[in-house]
Specification:
Blueprint (H helix, E strand, L loop, with lengths): L1 H18 L7 E6 L1 H4 L3 H12 L6 E6 L7 E2 L2 E2 H8 L7 E5 L12 H21 L4 E6 L16 H19 L2 E4 L2 H13 L1 H4 L11 H14 L8 E5 L4 E6 L1 E8 L2 E8 L11 H9 L2 H5 L3 E5 L5 E6 L2 E7 H6 L1 E2 L6 H28 L10 H22 L4 E8 L1
Parallel strand pairs: 1-2, 1-5, 5-6, 6-7, 8-12
Antiparallel strand pairs: 3-4, 8-9, 10-11, 11-16, 12-15, 13-14, 13-16
């Protein structure tokens, strides 16, 4: 029976990975306006992929530009933007999030809407003709915050963005695009956060347009769900009465010893999401959404313990204190101060660093100097590319599995 259970769980895990939208060898370009240019929902998504699939080779390029519309913007007209900031990288996957600026921050305007529809379809046709076979995710625009503050005009601007998103839904169905709704679930979470702490909730989207990191976490969740991202980090069930590992998923459990304390070794194939649950806004977001339940579950269940309370230490460091009943029901390790979370946070720090390096190369050298000739410009950009590649190599190395020693001791 135990062998059958483990086989079933392993098959379920493999199926979840097979269903994930991104595949080994993919190169993803995130394209959009200032909300993409913030490099927040995009870096959350990148770090999720790196920590959840550390053996897969997937690369990411962040090509958002503040103020952009479907026609382009400060980075040049749309054909320039696509050629320089998308086609150059030969992506296999592209996400497109535009619309916040296209609606004009006013009541619905049919002319603006027509330009948006025509422009978005032009982008789609141009991308597909240049990069046949590319998989495109159309992103329904993230919300204008009409939730924590009253709308500035009747109906509110977010209703306009929802209408733009509805068009993208129709286009996605017609053109076989993947569709990600970064509006509905974020609005719902804003509403719940507003009911919990109205003043803090305003800080999730402080200027009503550009979310802070906690708001971007909600957006990352919506995109990852559209990509069928798996919920589970790892799962372990230990029966201390029979002294056996009842089940394990996404981890190798060895050296189980049941005595005065319970000890074992785990080498996980995945890491939890790199989140600082002590940050008040992240904590509010986790309360107001289903992020942890939907994308960041790391249950540990220990059955048959004789004492009332136990302390869990991992690699000698305190991870938490739990009752026997808590452990029998299962405790979630994902947000606890474990070595695995620290490792994931280290990966995320490198995600941010390599994206900052790309930004410096692109926005402070390549674009400002594109109409001038400097003898050392190419060498300088090549040097920055090499430095970013070194950062990415360190990022990938930091995400690789490590063995950890667990100890459950009675308090």
């Amino acid at each position: 029976m135990r062998v059958l259970l483990i086989a079933f769980l392993s098959a379920a895990s493999a199926l979840a990975e097979a269903d994930f939208f991104l595949k080994d060898g993919d190169r993803v370009v995130f394209y959009g306006d200032s909300i993409t240019d913030q490099r927040l929902y995009t870096t959350f998504v990148e770090s999720y992929v790196l920590t959840r699939f550390p053996r897969m080779s997937i690369s990411f390029v962040h090509s958002g530009w503040g103020g952009d519309r479907v026609s382009g913007g400060g980075g040049g007209p749309i054909d320039v933007r696509l050629q320089r900031d998308v086609f150059t990288y030969k992506p296999t996957v592209m996400t497109i999030m535009l619309g916040m600026n296209d609606g004009g921050y006013r009541a619905f305007n049919p002319d603006f809407f027509e330009r948006y529809c025509t422009g978005f379809e032009y982008i789609l046709q141009s991308v597909r003709s240049t990069l046949p076979g590319i998989r495109i995710t159309a992103i329904q625009p993230s919300p204008y915050d009409d939730v924590t503050r009253p709308p500035v005009f009747s109906g509110g601007y977010n209703a306009v963005l929802v209408r733009y998103g509805r068009y993208l839904g129709e286009l996605a169905a017609r053109e076989n695009l993947t569709l990600a709704d970064l509006n509905t679930s974020v609005v719902k979470a804003l509403g719940k956060a507003n009911s919990i702490d109205p003043e803090l909730a305003k800080k999730l989207v402080p200027d009503r347009v550009h979310p802070g990191p906690a708001g971007h976490l909600l957006m990352a969740e919506a995109l990852l769900k559209a990509w069928n991202a798996p919920m589970l980090v790892t799962s372990v069930v230990i029966n201390t009465e029979t002294k056996e590992i009842t089940s394990s998923e996404n981890t190798s459990v060895t050296s189980l010893d049941v005595g005065a304390s319970v000890t074992w070794t785990q080498e996980d194939t995945r890491l939890p999401m790199p989140l600082d649950a002590k940050d008040p806004l992240i904590a509010l977001t986790l309360r107001a959404s289903d992020f942890a339940k939907a994308l960041d579950r790391q249950p540990l269940k220990v059955l048959g313990l004789p004492r009332a309370r136990y302390v869990l230490r991992i690699d000698g460091d305190f991870a938490g204190s739990f009752s026997r009943e808590d452990l029998a029901e299962g405790v979630d390790l994902a947000l606890l101060p474990t070595p695995m979370l620290k490792q994931a946070l280290d990966v995320h720090a490198l995600t941010i660093k390599h994206n900052q390096m790309h930004y410096v190369r692109w926005r402070q050298l390549q674009v400002p100097l594109q109409d001038q000739t400097f003898e050392r410009a190419s060498a300088a950009m090549e040097s920055l590319d090499a430095l970013e590649a070194e950062m990415i190599a360190q990022q990938r190395a930091a995400a690789q599995p490590k063995a950890h020693h667990y100890e459950l001791a009675a308090e």
